[in-house]
Amino acid sequence: MEDPYRPKPADKFTFGLWTVGNIGRDPFGDPVRPVLNPEHLVRKLGELGAWGVNLHDNDLVPFDATSQERDRIVASFKQAVADAGMVVPMATTNLFTHPIFRDGAFTASDAAVRAFALQKTMRAIDLGAELGASTYVFWGGREGSETDAYRDPRDAMKHFREAINFLCGYVQEQGYEMGFALEPKPNEPRGDIYLPTVGHMLHFITTLDHPLMVGVNPEFAHETMAGLNFVHGVAQALDAGKLYHIDLNDQVMGRYDQDFRFGSENPKRAFLLVKLLEDAGYDGPRHFDAHAYRTEDEEGVWAFARGCMRSYLIFKEKVRRFREDSEIQALLNDLSQQDEAYQGPRATGTYSRDVAHALKQHSFDSDALGSRGRRYEELDQLIMELLLGAR
Ligand code: GCO
Ligand code: MN
Ligand code: MN
Fold it and tell me: Considering the entire predicted model, what is its pTM?
């Protein structure tokens, strides 16, 4: 029998070169895995059934490469991607590793650093375009502070806006078919990062010169680190038409930035996320921005990658069963019938003076409404039993 959870390109699973290429360095310890060549990573991901691979400029081209070296590396990588039957749907810039970015990139106080960050990003956008990427991600890893003693955070916001406006203009002038996805994160590596959550980012986008070109790239771990509900953040991005990309992984609230395998810590939240994405008809990449435990060797890395994709597909299958489970559906119907039984005046879209008048006069049985239980305990337990394999 064919394995129902075998990933296929049509599932649109992607990994970053930096994710499966993670060598397990942390602030306390040296690397535990060798550096693996990008072409090897692409080949392996293709074999596992992934659709695409994403990269930072310097995951592929070293920071100090000459233009000849760059062209040779890029041509050979392009061939490897094609040979593996893969695509590069997203690209991004490393604006955090080099010491020049110690105080930020687009928001750095030093004007020369800000200008260098723009130069590096334009070149990296060219690289992304050459590889066929249609989404360009901005994760402002160093765009933050440990102390606000010097920089006024309003200047940081202004400089970030200027950079994104400038780069939108650059992409338009080049004629690239590319949208931007801004990725919020509350902290790490900076003490605090500006624009820390999906909500902050969504508002910031409305202040840009070309807001239609720009959406968000929410990450499970990032909203969770902030103590927020990731499913709600993604829902708000969907509601705003701004879910241009998504970073899937897992994270325990209150810990360091863990980047665990998708679904490994909070499977119920992961299930509800997959349900939301599938219900909404989200058709962008399902990108895993995670890495294998530091305990693992290369085999463990592939077990990790397989695990991310399989878990997504298992959750998706659970969503299908949720929709077909007669007990769950009967409960949902019951609830919604009662919810929609109300026949009185209500707000539907725009304001109406007549409805307002009728509503002010309407008499409600507040005792009856206030005594109605919601049966969410029952429903949630049914979901748990579905997830635990008991139904
Ligand atoms: C992190 C971020 C990054 C970004 C990546 C691509 O916490 O380190 O999630 O992995 O997603 O730089 O933009
Ligand atoms: Mn992250
Ligand atoms: Mn990320």
Answer: 0.97
